[in-house]
Amino acid sequence: MRTVVRISRALLGTALFGVAAAAWAAGTPGARMKTLVAVLVVLHALVDRPRRSALPALTIDALLLCSVAGVGVRVNGPVAAVLAYLLAAAALLLPRRHLPIVLVAMGGGAALRLMVWSPPNGLASDFDQAAAWIESGFYLAALSVLTLGAARAVTLGRHRQAEALEAEHRAAAVKNEFVSMVSHELRTPLTNIAGFALALRESWRTFDPAEVDEFLDLVCREAEHLKALVDDVLVVPRLEAGRLPIEVTDFALGPAAFRIANLVFPPGGEKSVAVSVSGSAVVRADPNRVEQVLRNLLENASRHGGAQVTVESALVGGEWLVVVADDGPGVSEDQQERIFSPFEQGKPGGGLGLGLGLGLSVSRVLVEAMGGRIWYEPGFPAGARFCFTLPAAEVPRNVPVSVPS
User: Fold this and answer.
1) In degrees, to the nearest 5, what angle opens at C-alpha 368 toward C-alphas 362 and 373?
2) Which of 80, 186, 279, 293 has its CA 20 to 30 A from that of 397?
């Protein structure tokens, strides 16, 4: 932007100095003095105000030049210089749709001056007087257009300032909401861990070994949940800073899927999960990040899906396709792209769900960082299907290519 402003100033100065030099060579001493003053005023605009908006400065200089050159008198060098200055400024600073008007004004002024310098015989005096008034009209029209341009620039500046303030307020509101959600989400597992640990410390002697194991298992699950929340919060800023560790290796997808499924859907719960991952599913990715993606998708299905959740896999070309499906209400069409944005969650009825709203957006970041893709598609006849791909470590031969139904 600074380069454009500098080039614009250079062009304006060149146009003015060229016309002013011609006026100096052909003018009287008084005209030369007015031309010198005009040049000094424009130099002040071009040099002394490098950090200000060009349009208000040009408008002020135009008003000064009006009083210096004198409008409504015979056309002379300084008036031509001022007119060229204003028209060049308008051509550079006004929107493109106004340029034809400016070009017509410039062409009309040039043709009029040629006719004034060599008018038809017998019409020199009348034509010269008419030309003076007409060119003064061109001058005032250019000044009016430039003034409107200045007003437009000021209005746009205020509008952009208001938009910036509104964006800042929205960012502050999102930040406050995020801090509030994080505090709430972290407080729940911390409270559960503290409660189970306190119960074990005070009454572990009276508990059966099975009850102690159950309490310890719940503590481990809540600690795993807490770690997962922290990992989700740290993924995006680490990726933006270029410090997100992705350790790619070849590993079997099945054991990871079973482990995360049992973690999110413990046996005997209200909801069940069926894992159908091929034993030959070996992917080239980061095992920890893949488990993070699976956990996010399964927790999303647990929170928003129905009673039955499935995890399936299929080899498609050189990639393994993983589908996490549920028989819940699904996601409305207007929310299908929003759900992958940070702090957004879809729920039945079109509102926003509970939680941080980071799971799906973090999953997209992680899958794409490992060379895969992730998307949503509706289930049939109902439900939701979240699909993602990962590079296959080794494509076995004679394996039929199919997509989970």
Assistant:
1) 105
2) 293
